[in-house]
Design a protein that fits this description.
Order of helices and strands of chain A: HHHHHEEHEEEHEHEEEHEEEEEHH
Largest sheet of chain B: 10 strands, antiparallel, barrel
CATH superfamily of one domain in chain A: 2-enoyl-CoA Hydratase, Chain A, domain 1
Oligomer: heterodimer
Mean pLDDT of chain A: 92
Number of strands of chain B: 12
Radius of gyration of chain B: 20 Å
CATH superfamily of chain B: OMPT-like
Shape of chain A: elongated
Strand content of chain B: over 45%
Distance between the termini of chain A: 92 Å
Strand content of chain A: 15-25%
Distance between the termini of chain B: 57 Å
Largest interface: A-B, 39 and 48 residues
Number of strands of chain A: 14
Number of helices of chain A: 11
Shape of chain B: elongated
Number of domains of chain B: 1
CATH topology of one domain in chain A: 2-enoyl-CoA Hydratase, Chain A, domain 1
CATH class of chain B: Mainly Beta
CATH architecture of chain B: Beta Barrel
Number of helices of chain B: 1
Low-confidence stretches of chain A: 1-15
CATH topology of chain B: Lipocalin
Low-confidence stretches of chain B: 1-17, 19-36
Strand order of the largest sheet of chain B: 2-3-4-5-6-7-8-10-11-12
Strand order of the largest sheet of chain A: 3-4-5-6-9-10-14
Chain lengths: ~325, ~260
């Protein structure tokens, strides 16, 4: 009996789950390791992650403050240039914004509301809509805002006499991919592959599954009239996926600036000190099997110059309406 | 986000109850009929109360720990020196990340097993019980976390072939005896199913010690009431770790109250 009790007691060290170490050195190493084993774009972006470890690790010691550690890890994470990679603590959030901050905005919501979404505009769920010169203009601000099938039905009904649709997804940082699917279903008349996805199968930087297709079937009567999709650098993540798929449809033209990218699914990990590390853990490929992490290019580049913003006009919308009226 | 406190190690809240088992052992001897030579069927049921601690390294190295409650049923057949038993137990646990407020995880756990044991020591010559045998078990653990970006439900299904041992000691008083036993199981071959990274679709893997490491203990103390009814207490410890890309470790500890009916 005594032996049994001693046996169980002696198991304590091995059996009971211990708290991981949460000192600065351990947390830095943990963040680096999670990224090393799980981040999906080291190869595509030609990032030498070990080199980043060697560059940042000497700064780390157990005497440093939380804020110093936070800055060091954040700086290291920003070397992958990925908006899905972020670090969140109870005192700060670090997100890479280099995919849109250095570039022209090519969008001014106030001008849009003054010019195109005036008092006559309708709201179909999260979509704001108006008819301008017999062309439909629809603005969808965020794929986080849930859209219903009846919202889309209303949009399609409202386009009955329009010559086409200008669908504006600028400043749309993405969100719920279910909304992408719902919208895409109304623009196809047969089953189509929206994107492919490759997920990690091992800890190596190149360990990925074969591309797995994500396909959609049509939902309701398809809208087949010409569509101009407006994008800029703040069209990111789910919005980027949407632009990638729409670019493959024969009746769709993309105008504006390229999208910001974000071609992979973000995942979350809690570091041992409680900070949240978000990282991209998969690779999204376009229907033609091309990575879309670096963004989707428009068929026609059109820009909003600073003087346009001052004058309250939006050449991208104007070009799209003109294009559809031709 | 709040940080509460940090514990150097998970504390088992039922440990203080273990001395009760020891006291029962020495102070209140429990005797049962010596039925070594009889062939008997039995069925039993147990209620379980304890806690579960899970480290799911896909989400964090921080353990999620919390109370767990469940039940077990078993049926068996004993002969002079051998025992066959099948049992099922399950529990539901509501856990939270230690040292972090607001991160919770709910788990449903189910385990079934078959055990064959052969008594090696001769009961007429020694009070020590030493039995050895083999078994098979399967378990399924299914978890849902409250807040993770793209959090897909985490689960694993494991089927294992085990070596099984039983250690014990018995005190005889005429035809009656006291027996306290501890059964432990070690898997040597396992089949595992887990979701792929970034989805819920399962993927199968097979391996030995390198894939699934596990130990399972059941420390029992039982008393007969009449010739057919038996009540008892038990301490159950179940631990396993899965060495895959989605590395999981889990420790569960329960105190049980058992009832068995012998035919």
């Amino acid at each position: 009996m005594t032996a049994v009790i001693v046996f169980i007691t002696s198991c304590k060290k091995n059996v009971f789950l211990e708290q991981p170490a949460a000192n600065p050195v351990a947390v830095f190493d943990e963040a680096w390791k999670i990224m090393d084993e799980r981040y999906s774009f080291f190869v595509l972006k030609n990032v030498d992650w070990k080199e980043q470890y060697d560059a940042f690790r000497p700064e780390i010691n157990d005497q440093m403050t939380e804020k110093e550690l936070f800055k060091a890890i954040s700086d290291m994470l920003k070397t992958v240039h990925d908006g899905h990679v972020s670090l969140i603590s109870n005192f700060d959030t670090s997100v890479y914004t280099g995919f849109y901050i250095p570039y022209p905005r090519n969008f001014n919501l106030i001008n849009i509301e003054n010019l195109y979404l005036t008092d006559s505009a309708k709201h179909f769920g999260p979509i704001k809509f108006n008819i301008i010169d017999s062309v439909g203009y629809a603005y969808y601000h965020s794929f986080n805002d849930m859209i219903s099938d009846s919202d889309i039905d209303s949009l399609v009904d409202a386009l009955h006499f329009a010559k086409g649709l200008v669908l504006d997804v600028r400043a749309n940082f993405g969100g719920n991919s279910n909304n992408v699917d719902k919208l895409c279903r109304r623009f196809i008349d047969q089953e189509r592959i929206v994107y492919y996805e490759r997920t990690k199968t091992g800890k190596g930087h190149g360990d990925f599954s074969d591309p797995r297709p994500h396909s959609l079937k049509p939902g309701g009567l398809p809208y087949k009239m010409p569509i101009v999709l407006l994008t800029n650098r703040t069209c990111y993540s789910a919005c980027n996926d949407f632009a990638s798929f729409m670019s493959t449809l024969p009746n769709v033209t993309i105008m504006g600036d390229q999208t910001g990218g974000g071609g992979g699914l973000p995942y979350e990990y809690i570091l041992s000190n409680g900070w949240h590390l978000n990282y991209t853990g998969s690779i999204t490929l376009s229907p033609s099997l091309q990575p879309i992490e670096q963004g989707v290019y428009p068929g026609q580049f059109v820009f909003v110059e600073p003087i346009d913003e001052i004058q309250g006009i939006d050449p991208i919308v104007d070009s799209a309406i003109h294009f559809l009226r031709k | 986000m709040h940080f509460t406190h940090r514990q150097p190690r998970l504390q088992l809240r039922q440990w203080p109850l273990l001395p009760i088992l020891i006291i029962l052992f020495f102070v209140n001897p429990l005797f049962s009929q010596d039925s070594l030579s009889a062939k008997r069927f039995y069925v039993g049921i147990s209620v379980l109360s304890g806690n579960a601690s899970v480290t799911d390294n896909y989400f964090s190295a921080i353990p999620f720990t919390g109370p767990a409650f469940g039940a077990a049923v078993r049926a068996g057949f004993t002969q002079r020196k051998s025992t066959h038993e099948i049992s099922w137990w399950f529990n539901a646990a509501h856990t939270a990340a230690e040292s972090m407020e607001g991160q919770t995880m709910d788990q449903f756990f189910f385990k079934g097993n078959y055990t064959y044991l052969y008594r090696i020591t001769n009961p007429k010559r020694t009070a020590f019980i030493l039995s050895a045998g083999a078994g098979a078990d399967f378990l399924e653990a299914s978890r849902t976390y409250n807040e993770f970006v793209n959090n897909y439900q985490s689960y694993e299904f494991i089927a294992s072939a085990n070596l099984v041992g039983l250690l014990g000691y018995e005190i005889k008083k005429g035809p009656k005896k006291l027996a306290l036993t501890d059964q432990f199981r070690l898997p040597f071959l396992s089949v595992l199913k887990q979701p792929k990274l970034g989805g819920t679709e399962g993927t199968w893997q097979t391996g030995s010690w390198a894939l699934v490491q596990s130990i399972s203990n059941l420390l029992k103390l039982e008393k007969d009431f009449g010739t057919r009814h038996r009540l008892g207490m038990a301490y159950r410890l179940d631990y396993y770790t899965v060495k895959t890309l989605r590395e999981i470790s889990q420790a569960q500890h329960f105190l049980e109250i058992n009832y068995a009916y012998r035919f």
